[in-house]
Structures are given as structure tokens and as C-alpha cells.
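TL;DR need C-alpha cells for one chain.
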Amino acid sequence: KLSNPYTSCVSAWEGPPLHFFPPSIIMAAAAAAAVNHQRSRSTSIHATPFPEIIETPRILVQKGMQSFCNNDVPSSLAYFDKADAATPNGSLKPFLWQRGISYYYLDQFQAGSDQFRLDVSVNPLDVEEIVWDIACLARMENNGRVAASAEFPPEKRMALPNGKKDRRRIMGTVYSLFRGDGATEYELRKAGHEGNISDEFYSLFYLGLYCEIRDETTKAESYMKAAASSTYASGNGAGDYMSSCAKVHCKLRGWVA
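>> reply
TL;DR here they are.
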């Protein structure tokens, strides 16, 4: 997921917003915190101990992201919940889009929809929040099952403000496809193929998600595996949280070992 265009952040959140840090840096910071914590536990009583790691909201979100990338979705949700609880006045809540994704993979679709809708309330131009909400609604309206073609798109789907669009060109086609506004699966494939490697990845990823909620499992598997093994996901975009999401999706569905 590309970074959100915000400058505001909560008072308990030290430094710039988490969204401005590349996921690769966030993952490395979480790993370093874990190593330092282990060192502090193993230090002998005769040596100067390492200071105990204080689990700030930032650290908790980092740990949640790391847990998700390690295919431990339940632990990721627990960390995101702790980060939310540790922030005063619920001011972190609208920025926890990662928690919404964890909710989806834990089949907690109402909670996922609630999270994404809260995200959109502060970031109304982010198509990905709207698309993930549509995915949650589609599953929720069918008691967790994938939706039949005739029942898509969900009636209560969100929309961008009139005259506005996501700053990422590929997302215009993703948005139109998920909302049922006219774009076709072929057009999204074509847009990804004709764009850069990031466009290719995001077209494949969201085609995979789209086909999953349309009960087209064979195509969903093909698209998502292609996204997970794409040039972007295995190269310059390997640190993108959504690259990890594609890989986690494939593992959770049993499509890769």
C-alpha cells in the first residue's frame, strides 16, 4: 500500500506519521527492537543491562505489521488493537488500515468494513480503503462466503467525492471495476500490462481480490500468485506491505507451500 498523504498525527505518536516510513524500514526497526529485547533478557546480573523496550504505539504497529508478514494474522490483530488502546482519545484508529486487512483475513468482515470506513473519513481519496470495504461488504452480505456474480457490487459501497480521484492512475481502473462503474477485468489487466511494474503488481493483486469475492477461485489464485511473484513484489517493491499481503494471501488460501 502506498503511503497516505497526511501530515497530522496523534499526540502519543512520536515523530512523523508511520505512513511516511517505507515498510522495509518499519520491518527492520521491529526486528531490531525484538533483538534488543532478547538481549536485555539474557544479560547477566553482573553486566549492565540493556534498557527495557517500551512498547509505544509505533512499536506495537511495527510488531503487528511484522507478525502479518510472518503469516501470523491473529497476532498482528492483537498488536494493532494494543496500539489503538495505547493511544489517547482513539486518535490512531483512523490510520490503522493494516488492521482492516487483518480483519479481512480473519473473516471479521463487519469489523473490517468499520475500520476501512473510518479510514476513508480522514482519507477520502484513497481508493484502496474503498475497495477493501467493498470486499468486506461482499463477504459479509453472504455470511462469509464469496459472493455470487448477481449479488455484486454491494449496494452500500462507498464512493470518492464528486470530481475527485486517487492520485495513482492504476487505481482509477481498480475503483471502477470494484464499484461496477464500467471497467472490466480485461481493462484492468491491460492497464497493468501497459503501466510500470508497480501498476502491473497492483492490477494483478486487485484482480485476485476481485475474483475471490466473485467466487472465481481459479482465476483468483492465478492472479494473486502472479502478483506475489511479480517483478515488483520480488524486487523494488519487496518492502511494500501489499507485496507481503499478496504472499500472505496465497499462503492462507493454500496456494503456495
